[in-house]
């Protein structure tokens, strides 16, 4: 009897592990979707710009300049923009490979497996909910300041103040209304809402151009040279601390990848929009910061209304109203970006069976997930109504940085994973099979494909160690090792920074050891053949750029507060309940699925059939039952038939 229990437990656990690690197969036609493919490169670029250029440029700029970096804020934005560009390039390559809604969630599902995909998707939902709520609250606060605090004072007089730790000072009914109204506006259809977004983004960029022009006209170069520390009053450390804060001003480029299922030509539009929007946003932040710090000494900046007060300082009072217009437009487009991405991520997870099935419904008239849009608007509105978002914004950052880290790792893994033929092939005649096999033998790139994931000739000295491993598996392990030791190095720098500065021997030896392991992992990765299959866009200098992206994201993560991590684990416990009680049992990916087809490029996907037709699915099911042996296969088949 104990032996039977042990066998049953072993079977159950092995079944869970295989389900958690199964990867997503894409449909036969990768461009097929119930959503409306109507967005061009211009629409997607302005969607990304609008999502990134919002409250940050009107609120964050003044705070960082006064308290962290001084005029060196322009270097902070430059460093943050470059760090974020590393992750954005990885998103762009995946957007070319997999033009589907869901962004990092789909990319992780394809590359690593279902469990980590759910973890990323669950955190993306939180990111966009809190992102939308925080911008709605900032929008409300900005409008309230224009009216001299009448809205907040009236609300407090009617409802009183909230004294709980995580709650805001008062219930923000205006922020609640803003979330609901903008969610309804997005319900008119993707093309109509993106036209509104594009108009507001252009107005915002025009206001930024006016701020830069007028600011540089009244510039005083002494604000950078001779006043209280000059250009770097807080030193290099202040610039780096400012970059860590400014990094979150660029969070939002993933809305570009989320639009992949509604782009007309995703293989061109996604990478082009990513690069253009990152360039425009980085340049805009740098120029506005330069104009602000040249216009007024950094220590005189009002962090709550930096730009309006700066222009009042030089007698340009009318600019205050123009800046207010730009701020409202900018925060509106940022809110649009979050409310645009959130329902589509819910839709992607529901279609895969990891969230409740009704969230995968698409309205036939608007071709939008309207149910998700309503839920997204209500959840964001309730959060904006009640919570103190200054405490929750850091909470949101963990999920964002975790998604960036895993997407960067996935780029390396897929580049060194071999490409195989899909399991389910279209029906063919014997003659076509002969011609196909002949073409495979004569294709110039066929030999290269067979070498992917194996050692290069010049690294044959590594053969005794890695020569017998399955192609691509060594690179996957090396990526895990690099990520683990990157985290260890960043934690060491955070915890023992004083010991390192004082030259304590054990901290230096430990840091050198961590760096040696990281470099060794990269050398082993480089020693293998890459997948040279043609993509419209590829991240340059793989594995070095994705590896640098992993290191930067982990460095930002270890700077977050301990309480932030505790809240993150509470959110993850709730997510694990959803996954293990519902998602793992309703996932659309069966035990017999293979991950081979997902490694094809999008150009190959047009030529080949991905996934199974109805005929081959039935054929595969009967074949699997005939060839099954033992209790384990029978149980799996029964589970699949019930699911």
From TrEMBL:
GO cellular component labels: plasma membrane
Pfam families on file: AA_permease_2, AA_permease_C
Membrane protein topology class: Multi-pass membrane protein
Sequence intervals crossing the membrane: 41-61, 73-92, 104-125, 173-190, 199-219, 231-251, 272-298, 318-340, 370-389, 395-416, 474-497, 503-527, 539-558, 564-582
Region feature Disordered, mapped onto this chain: 624-643
MF terms in GO: amino acid transmembrane transporter activity
Residue ranges annotated for the Cationic amino acid transporter C-terminal domain, each copy included: 537-587
Key words of the record: Membrane, Transmembrane, Transmembrane helix, Transport
Annotated localization: Membrane
Protein name: Cationic amino acid transporter C-terminal domain-containing protein
């Amino acid at each position: 009897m104990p032996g039977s229990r042990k066998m049953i437990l072993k079977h159950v656990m092995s079944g869970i592990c295989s389900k958690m690690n199964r990867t997503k197969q894409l449909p036969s036609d990768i461009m097929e979707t119930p959503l409306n493919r109507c967005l061009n490169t211009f629409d997607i670029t302005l969607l990304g710009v609008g999502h990134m250029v919002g409250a940050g440029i009107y609120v964050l700029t003044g705070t960082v300049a006064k308290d962290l970096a001084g005029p060196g804020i322009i270097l902070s934005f430059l460093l943050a923009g470059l760090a974020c560009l590393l992750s954005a390039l990885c998103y762009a390559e995946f957007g070319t490979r997999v033009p589907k809604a869901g962004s990092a969630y789909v990319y992780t599902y394809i590359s690593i497996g279902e469990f980590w995909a759910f973890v990323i998707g669950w955190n993306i939902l939180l990111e966009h909910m809190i992102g939308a709520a925080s911008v709605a609250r900032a929008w409300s606060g900005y409008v309230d300041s224009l009216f001299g605090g009448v809205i907040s004072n009236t609300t407090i007089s009617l409802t009183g103040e909230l004294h709980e730790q995580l709650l805001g000072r008062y219930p923000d009914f205006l922020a609640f209304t803003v979330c609901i109204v903008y969610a309804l506006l997005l319900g008119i259809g993707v093309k109509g809402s993106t036209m509104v977004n594009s108009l507001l983004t252009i107005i915002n960029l025009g206001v930024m151009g006016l701020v830069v022009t007028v600011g540089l006209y009244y510039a005083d170069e002494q604000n950078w040279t001779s006043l209280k520390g000059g250009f770097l009053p807080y030193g290099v450390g202040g610039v780096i601390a400012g970059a860590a804060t400014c990094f979150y001003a660029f969070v939002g480029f993933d809305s570009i990848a989320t639009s992949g299922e509604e782009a007309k030509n995703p293989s061109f539009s996604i990478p082009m929009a990513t690069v253009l929007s990152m360039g425009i946003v980085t340049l805009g932040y740098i120029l506005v910061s330069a104009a602000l710090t040249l216009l007024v000494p950094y220590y005189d900046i009002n962090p709550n209304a930096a730009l309006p007060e700066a222009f009042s300082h030089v007698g340009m009072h009318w600019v205050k109203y123009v800046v207010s217009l730009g701020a409202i437009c900018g925060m509106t487009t940022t809110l649009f970006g979050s409310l645009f991405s959130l329902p589509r991520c819910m839709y992607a997870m529901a279609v895969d069976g990891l969230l409740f099935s009704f969230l995968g419904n698409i309205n036939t008239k608007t071709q939008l997930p309207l149910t998700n849009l309503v839920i997204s608007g209500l959840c964001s509105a309730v959060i904006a109504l009640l919570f103190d978002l200054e405490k929750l914004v850091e909470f949101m950052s963990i999920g964002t940085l975790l998604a960036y880290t895993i997407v960067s790792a996935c780029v390396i893994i897929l580049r060194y994973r071999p490409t195989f033929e899909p399991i389910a092939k279209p029906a063919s005649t014997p003659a076509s099979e002969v011609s196909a096999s002949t073409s495979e033998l004569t294709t110039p790139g066929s030999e290269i494909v067979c070498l992917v994931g194996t050692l290069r000739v010049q690294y044959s000295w590594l053969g005794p160690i890695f020569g017998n491993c399955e192609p691509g598996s060594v690179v996957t392990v090396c990526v895990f090792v690099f990520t683990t030791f990157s985290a260890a190095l960043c934690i060491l720098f955070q915890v023992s920074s004083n010991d390192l500065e004082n030259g304590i021997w054990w901290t230096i030896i430990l840091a050198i050891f961590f760096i040696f392991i990281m470099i060794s992992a990269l050398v082993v990765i480089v020693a293998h053949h890459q997948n040279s299959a043609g993509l419209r866009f590829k991240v340059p200098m793989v594995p070095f750029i994705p590896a640098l992206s992993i290191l930067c994201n982990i460095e930002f993560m270890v700077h977050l507060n301990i309480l932030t991590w505790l809240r993150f684990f509470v959110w993850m416990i709730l997510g694990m309940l959803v996954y293990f009680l519902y998602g793992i049992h309703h996932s659309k990916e069966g035990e017999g699925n293979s991950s081979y087809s997902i490694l094809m490029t999008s150009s190959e996907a047009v030529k080949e059939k991905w996934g199974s037709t109805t005929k081959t699915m039935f054929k595969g099911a009967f074949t699997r039952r005939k060839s099954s042996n033992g209790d384990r296969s029978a149980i799996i088949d029964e589970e699949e038939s019930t699911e």
